[in-house]
Every structure is written in structure tokens, then in C-alpha cells.
Amino acid sequence: MLKAESKPINSLDATAAYNTARKTQSLLKTIWSYRVSYLFIAPFMICFILFIMIPVIAAFCLSFTYFNSLQPPRFVGWDNFRYMISQDLLFIKYALPNTFKFSVIVGPGGYLAAFFLAWLISILPRTSRKWFALAMYSPSLTGGIAMAIVWQPMLSGDRIGYLNSFLLKLGLVSEPQLWVTSKEYLMTSMIVVTLWSSMGIGFLAMLAGILNVNSELYEAGKLDGIRSRLEEIWYITIPSMKPQMLFGAVMAIVGTFKAGGIGSQLSGMNPTPEYSGHLIVNHINDYGFIRMELGYATALSVFLLLLMYVANKFCWSLFGTKEDE
Amino acid sequence: MKTTSAIRFSGLWRRRAKPFRLTPTEKISAVMLVLLSIFMLMPLVYIFNNALKPYQELFNYPPTIWVRNPSMQNFIELWAITKNSAIPMSRYIFNSVFVAVATVVLVTGVSAMCAYPISKHKFPGHRIVFGSILVTLLFAPETVAIPRYLVVSNLGVMDTYFGHLLPMVAVPVGVFLMKQFIDQLPDELLDAAKIDGAKEFTIFLKIVIPICMPAVATISIIAFQDAWGNTETSTLFMQDETMKTFPFFISTLTSNMANNVARQGAAAAAALIMFLPNLIIFLIFQSKVITTMAHSGIK
Description:
- The complex is a heterodimer of chains A (about 325) and B (about 300).
- Chain A has helices at about 1-35, 35-60, 80-85, 90-125, 125-135, 145-155, 160-170, 185-195, 200-210, 215-225, 230-240, 240-260, 260-265, 280-290, 295-320, and strands at about 65, 75.
- With about 325 residues, chain A is mainly α.
- In chain A, strands 1-2 form a two-stranded antiparallel ribbon.
- With about 300 residues, chain B is mainly alpha-helical.
- Chain B folds into two domains: about 25-70, no CATH class; about 90-295, MetI-like (MetI-like fold).
- In chain B, helix 2 runs antiparallel to helix 15 (about 265-295) and helix 12 packs antiparallel against helix 15 (about 265-295).
- The two termini of chain B are about 15 Å apart.
- Chains A and B meet through helix 1, helix 2, helix 4, helix 5 and helix 6 of A and helix 2, helix 5, helix 6, helix 7 and helix 8 of B.
- Chain B: Its main location: membrane.
- Chain B: Keywords: Cell membrane, Membrane, Transmembrane, Transmembrane helix, Transport.
């Protein structure tokens, strides 16, 4: 009886195995017929896997270990994360709130500013557009170390600094203020300088998006009773450039969270005065390359990656294209 | 749809163009933009003037904006800083120029090669490939500097030019922009070429690349700016001083500059050297950038 039962099952298995074998064979055949395509993507994919995929995966693995680069990593479970949220005072008191403040102002602020500027530019006749776009974009060309130098004469703490001498002349301050070396002002200076240089490719994408909105839509909107410019932006411009809005948002988030060097570049001190400009990125470098606690440092970077992911999810839900569109 | 958009991007700047007289809204926006432009450009004007100011003018009180007697003194001083050290400044500049040019060539080539099959071939797995590129678009690779460091040191490319180049080659934004642009190409064009017996590589070189020049130009600009200003690879992957780049040299020059004004002139000159190539390249390709960005949306 057992035999009789097992027989049909066996033959079923055999057909299933035969089917999967045929399927894999035909899949391999299609893959082989596309071999040139794989050859084309190979150079990028090799570098992509080596320098982006593996580091991200490795970061997730290393974040659960104790690793000091001399001995092999030792598995410690959730210890790094537990330490991060309960005992690492520098992280809780400075890095986290500073990053929060910095990114809430620079991220959405810079993004809205970019949209607003792009919209202002799109109103103008075309001959002048090019020059205003250039004026807004050129600060982002100074990126990195040059950015800090460019602002140095402006914010320098003695009376020769342009900002100080200007305020002294107006009588708004009685003595020169230390814009970049005191803990009161450093964060503000960092935010202003970063905002200044944040009109990068995200801004250009939104500008192109606005210029590309079909002008017939505006005329149709007028007929349908749209009266103010504000209504026009809300009901026509933004919905028809959602993809560009999303691209701009992604660029803004990435740019905001990876900013880290600016505090020590401006103040010329590392760590920044009384940790007033200490961001998570600084904290990672501090643990990773100075204290050599690589396990804990990667746990911090995993935390940062998760923050970026959450922020991005939020933007996708705002501007992502739905299935039916 | 495809043909109309092709026509549309040739006349992008002309869209919504109006007759010469300005309406009130245009006037308001023009005034606001002029004020904002002044704010945006002011620091650049300062740095330009500071770079040309002779020593005594730099420390005048009250500080002046415009230079009175322009001189090359600061550039000469910048050059002289490295006179007595083992590595001349020309070495840093050579490294920077070489790395930047090589990065631009590699990034544009590799991105275009990767984007073309993703957009037009639909090979098995193209969704996964593009999906993973989209996901990494959301992450900044800089945040995982430590594992990257481990990869580079295990590959044995520390202290070589490969250490500068290889980590910079995979630019997800590059592939993304390129793919969106290639999507606009009509399939019929490629099919016609295939019927005429053209090989994939010929199609790529003779048809795809020439049509996608705007995207190629844009990616070149992005790649150049990244590579030219990059200090990360020098700090992390180069121990040998002769392999480090110009921006790294500037960052050593300017550390602690907030309290120390002695080298401000030289620093201003250095910042100008960093800024001008970016500006010139952007000016040359500006209109192409706007054309590409019109297709940059994430759908």
C-alpha cells in the first residue's frame, strides 16, 4: 500500500524536477543570449559591488562586533547599539541633537529654497534665466575645502572680518563676535554656509522640471478657474514635476546627512569648540580613525544609513509615482 | 510622446518666453532674484578680490571689498610654501589633474555602458540591477568609509592611483541620469541599425553616445567636481605624501586658520585655483546640463 502511494508522488517529483531543469536551461539560454549586455554592465557592477554593496553589507555585519583592526572581529550582539543609546554621552548630548537640528533646517529648508528659487527663475524671460541660474548654482561649485576658505574672510572673528566690521559700523554689536570659534554661533554659521552651497544638481533638476511643464496646462488651468500663482503652483506645477521633486529631495537628503567636515573646516578645530558642531559623521570618524573602535563606528554609520532611509521613504510617499499614474 | 519631448528639450530656455516688457510679477521676482544673487555671489567676489590683494591690503581696517593694487603675491606665496619641503606643489597639482581627468573618463564611460543595456536590452535581472542602483542613490557611500577602507586595503591599491580612481568609478547618480536620458531614444532607431548588421558596440558608440552627449556632459561635470574637490581618498587611502592631491594639501594649509590669519592670502589664492576649473567647465556645458536634468525625475 505504501508503495502504491509513493509511486505517483515519485513521478510527480520527476516531472517537477524535469520542469525546473528545463526552466533553468531556458533561463541560462536567455542569459547567454544577452551576454553582450552583461559585458556592458560588468565594469560598473564590479566597482559598484566592491565599493558600495560590500561596504554597506560589511557595515551591517561589523556593527554587531567588537573590532579594533588588529584582532579579528568578535561578535557582541546588540552591545554597540545599546551603548550608543544609553552610555555614549557625546552621542546623546551633542552628535544626535546637532545632527537633528542641522538636517531639519538644511534638508527641508534647502529643498524649499531650491524650489522657490527655481520657480522665481522660471517666471523671468529666458535671456536672464541663464544668468540667475548660474548665480544660484555657482556656490555649489566651491564644495569641500574651498567652501570653508571662501567664508573665512567673511566670518573671521576679529574686526577685520567683513561681517563683524559691517555690524560694528551699523552699531548692532559692540565688539567683534567669534562667528566660527564660539559654541554659540558655530552651528548657525555651519547652517548658513551649507544652505548657501546647497543649490546643486537637485536645484537644476527642479529648474528643468518647472521649465518643462506643458504650458497648455497653465492655460487650461486658467479656464478652469485657477486665479492665483499659488494655486497654479499647487495644482499644476508640483503635480506635473513630481519625479523631479523626488530627485531633488533625494539629493537634498544625501547632501545633508553626509555633510560633516564643515564644522571643523570652518572653526579650524577638531573636535569643534565644546562639540557645538559635532555631527554623527564627525562622531563616526572620531571612533573609526582616531580611537580605532571600528565595530562601534560602523554601528554609528548603520544608524546614519537607517536615518537616511527613513527620510527617503518619507519623500517617496510624498512624491513617488503611484501604480495608476 | 517621445518625438514631442525630443522637440521640447531643444527649446527649453524658450518655453514660457514672453514679450520684452516685464509684468509686475516678473518685476517682483527679478528684484528678489537680484538681491539673492548678491547674497550668493558675495563670498565669491570677496575671495576673488582677496586672492589678488597684496599683503598690506588684506589687513586694512576697515576691510575693503575691491582690490586696489592687484598683485600675484599670494599665488607666489602659495607656491613658496612647499619650496623647502620634499614634495613641490606641482606634484599635488599633477596628482589632482591626473586623477580628475581619469575619473571623468572612467565614470562617464562606465556609467554610459551600464545604462545602455539597462534601458534598452531588458536582460534578465535588469530590474534588480536598476533597483539596487536606485537604493544606493539614497545612501551616501561616504557614510560607510570604514568598510570601504577595509576593502581598499585588502585589494592592495593603497598608495597607487587606482586607490584614487576605483572607489570613485561607481557613481549611481551617473547611471541613473544616463538611463533616464537613453529611455528617450526611440527603439526603432536601434532596431534599424541592428537590421543593417551593426554590432551592439557599434550601436553604442555611433548612435547612443552621440545622441546622449548632453547626459555625457552633465555626468562629466558632476564627476569632475567630485574628483577635483575630493579629499577623502587622499586622507584614507594614501599614506605616501607624494600620492596626495591638491585639495588635501590645502586642507593641511588651512587647518587652524580661523585663529591664524597669516596665510589667508595664500588660502584665498588656493580656493580660487579650486573654484575656477569647476566654473569654466560648467559654463561650457551649461545648456546641456539643463537639457539632461529635464529627464532626471525618479518615476
